Model the fold of this input.
Amino acid sequence: MSPNSYAVILAGGSGTRFWPLSRTSTPKQLLRLFDDSTLLEQAVARLDGVVPKENILILTNADQETQVRAALPGHPPENILAEPEKRDTAPAVALGIGWVAARDPNAVMAVLPADHLVHDVAAFRAVLAGAFQAARASSALVTIGIKPTWACPGYGYIERGERARILGLPAELAAFEVARFREKPNPELAEEFLRTGSFLWNAGMFVWSVPTVFTELTRCQPLLAAFINELRTSHDLPGTLQAQFARLPKISIDYALLERASRVLNIEATFDWDDVGSWLSVAKYLPQDADRNATRGAVTTLRARDNIVYSTQPTRIALLGVHHLIVVQTADALLIAHQSAADDIKKIVDEVPADLR
Done:
């Protein structure tokens, strides 16, 4: 573990996909969906032995800052920072780069989401350590990709090219040149990607050195590079952030940087991974009965199958003769939806009273 290794964990989010359990102030990464720890706590713990704790930086937003700090009471308070407003991933990542550069202009840093589920922590650490090594041994941006398990049209894809020679990379890991990034495909194209065997899911996990990423941004996104330089030299980082952040373009890091970079490498994840994108994903990790009802809480079923029931309340929920429903009960709200509408749950949040969002 190198003292100049850093990690920026992106811990924002709208809190709509898991309504009514999630709210604006408590999005997915702040929920205890599977056990007594939040996904954010798990994301921090996974870095143990790879990144020094004092170098783990948490980037959130103003709506969630209080809850993030409460979820990480032992984390250095100066290592938690809130964006003044939401401006997509490129400004957020630029803020993270500037934040790291202000501490160590030669650092090697990872950018990681806070809301993914990983069980094989040892394999995650090995892959991340390999990505750090690849970033140190090359002037390249490094991505960690997930081997597709099905032809998912909802993910972006990474197309891999030739194998790259990277000094010091463990034999069980391999780095490949990235041929190109592909946006979310239609189902037919996703099937084609799966058949070729040369495409991985883009999980939004990146590793690079500060000098390399700054050089790339200077070439292809000078406004973001200038912002990073302002942060790096600022004697008042919060003040600079407030003054400059709102001026940055709303653009994703894939469009702004990865698709335009001179050289990008990819390392395939050897660990299990789930972005837990909806209640349908959560169901895979809940106890299931003989009729494939996935439940948490007090639930009784009769002639009911393939339902998802999640309750935080002692009130018993009884399902009779219904199929493919999502039922979520909290202290102040109850959601009943067909599973085919799982992706539209975020839309109904706009229709409920403001105090329930």
